[in-house]
Each structure stands twice: as structure tokens, then as C-alpha cells.
Amino acid sequence: MNVAIFSAKKYDREFLSAANGSCHELRFFEPHLNEETVGLAAGFDVACVFVNDQVNAAVIANLHSLGVRLIALRCAGYNNVDLGAAKQQGITVVRVPAYSPYAVAEHTITLMLALNRKVHRAYNRVREGNFALDGLIGFDVHRKTVGVIGTGQIGTVVAQILIGFGCSILAFDPVPNPTCHSLGVQYVELNELLAQSDIISLHCPLTPENEHIINDAAIANMKNGVMLINTSRGALLDTVAIVDALKSGKIGYLGLDVYEEEEEIFFEDRSGLILSDDVFARLLTFPNVIITGHQAFFTKEALLKIAATTIDNITRFESHQPIEKLAG
Ligand code: NAI
Cα(150) to centroid of ligand 1, in Å? Predict the structure, then answer.
């Protein structure tokens, strides 16, 4: 099949080309897919997209008229795709439901530990010949209570790792996971999790119902000085409320791998440009905030699995083999 790969980076070329061999005709496009760039899909059977491509109803209608029959997401989350519109246009949508929960879970733990022990500050100090410890005091993670919101594949691995540290895990998920039960995770209501946890980590998908699940009211319910980690999707947090809580000290540590307006910022080298997002710019000023640019998934193992599953999805679609579909 002819496959148009949007938001393509060097590593996408490398891993997808290797997984593909000579199965399909792959064409790599650097721009995101959106209403301005959708014309690039003319003549292709498949549009292969990533987290910040805008696959809304207008884009889908255009893809349909250009002859695209399959939208292949090379990620797990699909909040950026209008599945109803795809269904209406008869376009099949597939994704990579599981690639490496370990990649994202381990990055989550990296953010927690780095924030706690202020590794980002210590690194800079030592390089400047400053070996003073003032301001670098941390806490033992051992025996702390961690709230995990969403106990699917990633949340479960996070819980598993933290149990190894000697933490108590509280969880909130409308569909409790038996694996977590057997690990000793205690399911509670969201308000109780927010009130009892020293560290809170988000691992649920973004849906219209849980957008800004962490807002002013939720923050008011948290412990003073709480650590909040979001490696899931940016719009789960009301970032303006988060900035206020950092200013007041209510939130003591913030680790983000995602941001609600990340589409305009992440995945590009903008080091020579002026940052026009004032909320994001304010976040960068806090010494107790670490932000990474949506890199939690970025391990060799995950990229290999993403590429293999994406090519397999396309092959299965072409040869009418069973395939797990989001739409179509
Ligand atoms: P999963 O589908 O295995 O688990 C999600 C869990 O969240 C399910 O158990 C579900 O019942 C639960 N859930 C749904 N709505 C909820 C709510 N309102 N409150 C609490 N729990 C809720 O998904 P997986 O693989 O664990 O991924 C979780 C999320 O991580 C993805 O949806 C995606 O947004 C994000 N992600 C981020 C990556 C990154 O590089 N930063 C990479 C991969 C995923």
C-alpha cells in the first residue's frame, strides 16, 4: 500500500523503513497532518499519524475524498482522532495499543526521583564548581503514599516499581485491575487519593469527561507540597491552575512529559526562537518543575514495537486479516 507518514522524524524513517522492508511504499512527510497539509495525502491509501497530528472531522473528510482508506496511528492514545467522523466516512482507524509500558513507567519514575533529589539543579551546580548542598534536601520515597490515576498497562508498571521502593499505592480507575489488586494496590475514590497521596501520577487516557481532571478544586484537596507527575496527556491538567498552585507552594514538585498546548512546541528545536506561550514560559521559571518534551515512550524497544505493529496493522488491513480497529 502507499503510506503517507506525517510528523516524520529521522528515527521514524529509520525504524519504520527497517520494519517495512519492501512490504509497502512509504513516503515520509515532516509536517503535522492538519487542514493545511492534508493535501499531501493525495494518492495514498494510508495516512500514518502521531500524537500531535490533528485528525479532526474536516481532515478526515478531506482524507476520504483523497482516497485514504486507513488511518494508522503509531501511538496508543487516540484523543486527536475524531473516531465518529472516521466511521461516517468509512475510514478504518488502527493504533499501537501496547508497545512498552516500561518505557513510559520508567520515565515517570525518572521524573519523580530527579525532582525529589533535585538532580537538575545539582547537575548545573557541580558543573559550575558549586558543591554546596543547601536547597538540595530530598525525602525518602520509602513508605510514601503514591496515588496512581489510571491503572492500565502503564499505571500498573508504575505501581509495581513503586511497591519495590516500599511505597503504599492508592489508585483510582473506573475499571479496577486485578493485577493491581494482587500487588496490594488499594482502590479509593479520586478525592481520597488526592487528599492522601504524597505523590500523584496520571496514567489515564484523555477523554472529554476527564479534561482538566486536575483543576483548582482537585488541587485544593491535595496535601501541601504534593508532587504531581503527568506523563499521560497534557489537557488532564488545567495548567493555569497548576501555575497558581506552584506559586502558592501548594504543589511542591511538578514533573511533566506532556503539555496541553504541546502541539505548537514539542518535537522541534526551537532554541533560537521566542517562546510565545506565556503559561509554558512561566512553568519553565520554577526550580521545582522538570519538563521533558513527550519523550517517555522514546526507548529502542518501544520504537521497534511501534514500527513493527504499524507495518503489521497496514499489512493486515490490506490482506483483510483480523485487526484491532478503533473505527471502520
Ligand atoms: P491503558 O488503556 O492500558 O490504561 C488506561 C487506564 O485508564 C484504564 O485502566 C482505564 O480504565 C483508566 N481510565 C480511563 N478513564 C479514567 C479516569 N477518568 N480516571 C482514572 N482512570 C481512568 O493505557 P496505557 O497504555 O496505560 O496508557 C495510558 C496513557 O498514557 C495513554 O492513554 C496515553 O495518553 C499516555 N501515554 C503517554 C506516552 C508518552 O510518551 N508520554 C506514551 C504512551 C501513552
Answer: 6
